[in-house]
Specification:
By secondary structure, the protein is α/β, with parallel strands linked by helices. 40% of the residues lie in helices and 15% in strands. The chain has three domains: 161 residues, no CATH class; 260 residues, Rossmann fold; 110 residues, Arc Repressor Mutant, subunit A (Orthogonal Bundle). The protein is built from 20 helices and 17 strands. GO terms for molecular function: hydrolase activity.
């Protein structure tokens, strides 16, 4: 049914043909459209949409040359469809006359072609809805091998064009050696919030769900807008204008977080004036997506955001969470590099500090603070491009034991680490505590109103603080130890006569079973507390660790009393004698 296709062309021949057509048209041989194709395009000024242009003139010429048109290939409707699609593909390139000749050649391959009718059909199509995509779909159906040949050419031509453009771009700015300069005259980095957020760059806050990252983001905003240091070590440079965009929660929820942070930290409206801007999920903001040719920034979105930031004179933008402002696959470095490029452009051209709030991976959530900057979910490109990475983790079981925090309360204590500090020295971990603030907004139906979380600073107690006791407790412990035999004052926590059992009895604690797997979290916490008391007592001197001979005649590490603590009833303790003296 189909006529034999023209002989296959080499890439060199095809590129030479492009050059010849370009010379006739006075252009580079590429059309106004990018390489590739589609269905239809919408021109500016509200005009009727037309088909997508062909990648270039030679691609369109090839497609029509390789389109079979012997008797029986097309019925009239299909023939008209070829005309519509070819005309649409030619319009965007501005080669309607030349393409009309190629269409006539295509029509002449039909044995009973009416030249006048073919010409009339071509000229009647003013704004055809079909274009390059439609033409290639027809060619794919009637001549798959020809369609493949056209696609191969387009790929080769695209590569050649991109290669030339890249070479020109690389060579546009010649290298020159660095000349003498005075480092004292170099502009300093524009830190806006401690050493966490810096103008012209983006930073990342990484946390698992339920860790309080949105509460911390809002507290950061209040601190920056008021110019007050609400968390130690996070000092704003000066009062600045900050925009918090939360794409998961409504605007009203944003206002509640703001109210909670202000109320708890005593910040009033005069402190922040007009320097805080809020938006919620009702404000759509998508910056990157997967397009027909792969990952891309949403056309106009980044530029529009930059314009908005400039117009409102924003200094800091917090996006919470990052995953809601793009639709790219997060595990692909190729895709995420596109997003990172957009974020850098926003921070640089709007001259802001950009903060991206992001989730941790499941594996990193299990690892806690040990995961470091790598805790971020998805590809490494996001973290690699960040200037600072703050990692939030809930207090671990061990940290709760060490701090004497009940097991059920540890999720309220948040460790804040700087997992990456490219432009400043890494600091020690900070601690904060989640607190609930009642807004007093109850009504007849909901009498209690809303309790909204915010954060406050919290300090991990030192070893000495963790073993701190009242005078009465110390007296009770020293007295119990003084009257006990050596085999009841053993220093090793796993021994049957562990001295901790004496302390347990005096303080009303519960150390639980000898085996760790048989103890409850509260019993583990009590064991840690007793160990801290012993360590603190030895450090201060009211307890002493020595080897003593036990009743079985064997020397073992034991705990005895040292210097009576300040305020102890020495006379009362002097009345107590040891039943076994050291040999």
């Amino acid at each position: 049914m189909s006529a034999a296709s023209p002989a296959a062309r080499t890439v060199g021949n095809m590129q030479a043909a492009v050059g010849r057509i370009a010379a006739r048209r006075g252009s580079s041989g590429r059309g106004n459209a990018a390489m590739g194709g589609g269905g239809a395009r919408s021109p500016a000024n509200g005009a009727t949409k037309t088909g997508w242009a062909a990648p270039n003139a030679e691609a369109l010429h090839m497609a029509l040359e390789l389109m079979p048109n012997d008797d029986g290939t097309f019925d009239r409707n299909e023939w008209v469809a070829v005309a519509y699609a070819a005309k649409g593909a030619a319009l965007g390139l501005g080669i309607v006359a030349e393409a009309g000749e190629w269409f006539s050649d295509f029509c002449d391959r039909y044995p009973r072609n009416d030249t006048a009718e073919s010409r009339k059909l071509w000229e009647e199509q003013d704004r055809p809805m079909k274009g390059w995509g439609g033409l290639m779909a027809i060619l794919e159906r009637v001549n798959p091998a020809g369609a493949a040949q056209v696609k191969d050419y387009v790929k080769a031509a695209t590569f050649a064009g991109q290669s030339a453009a890249n070479i020109a771009a690389i060579n546009a700015n010649p290298l020159s050696p660095v000349t003498t300069f005075d480092p004292k005259k170099l502009p300093p980095r524009k830190w806006v919030y401690g050493f966490d957020y810096v103008r012209g760059f983006y930073s990342v806050m990484v946390a698992a769900g339920g860790t309080g990252k949105s509460a911390l983001a809002m507290l950061d905003a209040v601190a920056i807008a008021s110019g007050r240091e609400l968390l130690p070590g996070c000092k704003p440079h000066k009062p600045l204008r900050v925009w918090v965009h939360n794409a998961e929660d409504p605007y009203e929820e944003q206002r509640k977080r703001l109210a909670a942070a202000m109320a708890h930290h005593g910040v009033n409206w005069a402190d922040i004036e007009d320097r805080i801007f809020l938006s919620g999920r009702d404000t759509e903001l998508v910056l990157a997506q997967t397009g027909s040719n792969g990952p891309q920034l949403v056309p106009g979105a980044v530029e529009g955001l930059i314009g908005k930031l400039r117009a409102s004179q924003i200094d800091v933008l917090i996006m919470d969470p990052l995953g809601a402002v793009h639709t790219l696959p997060e595990n692909s470095n190729t895709d995420m590099n596109v997003l990172v490029g957009g974020m850098r452009k926003i921070a640089d051209q709007a001259d802001i500090a950009l903060v991206l709030v992001h989730h941790t991976s499941k594996a990193a959530t299990a690892m806690g603070s040990e995961a470091g900057a790598g805790a971020s979910r998805g590809a490494s490109a996001l973290i690699d491009g960040a200037r600072s990475v703050r990692q939030l983790t809930q207090m671990s079981m061990k940290e709760a034991y060490d701090a004497d925090i009940p097991h059920e309360d540890r999720r309220m204590y948040i460790r804040i680490d700087n997992g990456k500090a490219n432009l400043a020295p890494a600091g020690a971990a900070k601690w904060a505590r989640l607190v609930g603030v009642n807004l007093g907004n109850g009504d007849a139906e909901y009498r209690h109103g809303d309790n909204v979380q915010t954060m406050e600073s919290w300090t991990m107690p030192t070893k000495a603080q963790r073993g701190a006791l009242s005078d009465a407790d110390k007296l009770a412990i020293q007295t119990a130890i003084k009257v006990a035999t050596q085999d009841k004052r053993k220093a090793h926590y796993g021994a049957d006569g562990y001295v901790g059992f004496l302390i347990e009895e005096q303080l009303g604690l519960a150390l639980g079973a000898p085996k760790a797997e048989e103890r409850t979290p509260d019993e583990e916490a009590d064991r840690k507390k007793v160990a801290a008391i012993i360590a603190q007592g030895i450090e201060v001197g009211w307890l002493v660790r020595d080897k003593e001979k036990c009743p079985d005649g064997k020397p073992r590490p034991c705990i005895r009393i040292g210097t009576p603590f300040e305020g102890a009833d020495v006379a009362k303790m002097a009345d107590v004698t040891l039943p076994f003296a050291d040999d």
